[in-house]
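Chain entry —
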Amino acid sequence: MNEPSSNYRDTWNRLSETLDSALMHVAGYIDEERIAFEAERSLKLVRDTIGIRPEDTMLEIGCGVGRIGKVLAPKIRRWIGCDVSDNMLRHGATWLAGLGNVELVRINGHDLQPVPDASVDAVYCSVVFMHLEEWDRYAYVKEAFRVLRPGGRFYCDNANLDSDDGWAVFESSARFDPNNRPQHLSRCSTGTELNVYLRRAGFREVKTGTAGVWIFAWGQK
């Protein structure tokens, strides 16, 4: 039967009992060279949209094992990785060992409540919206707005429904029995959807772009 959306923690703890299983369910591979390459690709998207500044405190929603944080943290003042899964955070502590400016925070799957208001310079969320219900996507956009300082920047992405590769993701997920769809099954977005979330949350100068299978949006508080 369907798992309720409130079960994000149980779902991702089950899928990340080992580091290899965590990487497979987040990235689809376990090769460390490829992980580093793809992390740099994600980093480039963040840099090209909201920018990366040495003085920044940056927060990642759904950090997983910290694959992006590992390459981003050395470039900024402070990196905060938030995730719903205890196991992901445990693997992240190992993955990020030796980096003195990182903090890992467990969240509940619906908001960023442990993080104070107006406390970070930039928030990003990559390869996470595909695992969330629409309402929870918007909740995180609103929470990003809350925790950002005035002038802070936000970036999010998802598989692009309005692309051939994104449509293939959609069709693959659609093949599951409606009564037995896994909680982590990939869902897609459109540029219009992400644009609306950011504007309704209060962001200004909202823009969208595409890169391969991805649709992404960014804006400023």
